[in-house]
Amino acid sequence: MLFFHRGLRSLVAIELKIGAFKAEYVGKMNLYLSLLDRLEKGENENPSIGIILCADKDHLDVEIALQDINKPIGVAEYQLLLPKDELQALLIQEINSIEENTDSERE
Length: 107
Known about the structure:
Layout: E1 2-5, E2 10-16, H1 24-39, E3 49-54, H2 59-66, E4 73-77, H3 84-106
Parallel strand pairs: 2-3, 3-4
Antiparallel strand pairs: 1-2
């Protein structure tokens, strides 16, 4: 997801991950922020900010992964309001519904 924060005058890229934090997510976010700053950022805007939302994170893994990154990237956990099995069933149901609607539109 991409937002613009008027107060900070920055693009804010948010990436939602279903599972636990992986160090490779930081590299991807760093790439996204570099692209945003090069291709989308306006002259009077500040550098883009990245937020990685994960289901779980190990603080030491996050600290080490961000250690030499010069871009503003944060990692945070989120909590599910539904049990994982219920959420997965809802997502599958939604995907199937979208596929059915797409198929019926083609006909």
